[in-house]
Amino acid sequence: MNQEQFELIFEKLTTRLKEVLQRILAGETDADIAAAMEIGEPTVRKHIERICEKFGLSNENSDIRRHKRSDLVTLVAKYKPDLLTEYQLKFTHQIEAITDKNDHNICDFILQLLSVNHPINEEFNKFILRFNCNEQEKKQIAKSLNKIGYEHYLNSDFNIALSYLKLAIEFKHDFASAHYNLGATYEKIDHWIPACEHYKVAMRYQNRAGEAAINNLARLEILQGNSAAAVEMIAPILSKVKDHTVKAALHKNLGWAYFQQTFYELAKQHLFISLELENDYPPAYCLLAQVQAAVGDKENSIIFWRKFLESYAQEQKLKSVRSHLPELEIWKLDAMRNIMETAI
Q1: Quick one: CATH architecture of 1-98?
Q2: Does the global pTM surpass 0.90?
Q3: 114-140: per-residue pLDDT in tens?
Q4: Burial degree of 192 (CB within 10 A; 0-12, 13-18, 19+)
Q5: How does DSSP assign 305-332, residue by residue?
Q6: What are the start and end residues of each CATH 1.10.10.10 domain in the chain?
């Protein structure tokens, strides 16, 4: 079904069926609807069956019919969310009329709703948070939201990513990975203050997300010329990091910080370690080119500039997350300029 088909079916519903649908969205039981509309419960059930049939939802038995209420809500959430929002408060208070935890996983139901509502606006966010979930359910929902948000981040759909990631930490406040992904997403849209705030939350936890958050915070300090602060952040954790990708980035940033401080030998040492951990790592090649130029080794500088351009082009072709660092585009111009100067 597409938007046009939904609208056509919805507009052709009788006034009576529209009222029944609206009351379903409000979370009213068959008895509630019967009393409000002054009809019998069998008539209500017949109306629900007709609505489901018109939208292509089957009604084999009462249990399936009850579950089809959930499908109707999902369908409306996808094609006419304003109607759902209008009735969401009462719907949430009487959610048991739509979802029975024993028969229908509430996590699946919530995620089904979320899958058709993006980005998640403030009203819908409040609506979802009214569900009474236990800690295990909250954790499961948060993990799914974080995964969806990260996928949108990779596709550069940053506003949509933010909506999912912010909701993830509403369900699980101490979710380091979601805080890290939020920081990375805010950074992509140049909102450095909230980016740093979420990185700082993530770095409280001794896991990969916390270590990656320290790395990203250090990089932001370097970009602002605060190389000493970056060294203070990286040095204490460097020996404890197990993940090679994170460790390579930490060594790269430490090399970058030392380069800013004109400690060229230390800079080279960490940049070479970075390349040992991650072959063809564009930022490490680029920084080595700059270090070699600073110490007067123009020949090796050009070699590393060329390696940088080759590896950077490959990562861009693969659409690697690492290739999205904005400074790489500036360094790319520097590389081309330096190579061209040697060719003259």
Answers
A1: Orthogonal Bundle (1.10)
A2: no
A3: 665 556 767 677 767 777 778 888 898
A4: middle
A5: HHHHHHHHHHHHHHT-GGGG-HHHHHHH
A6: 1-98
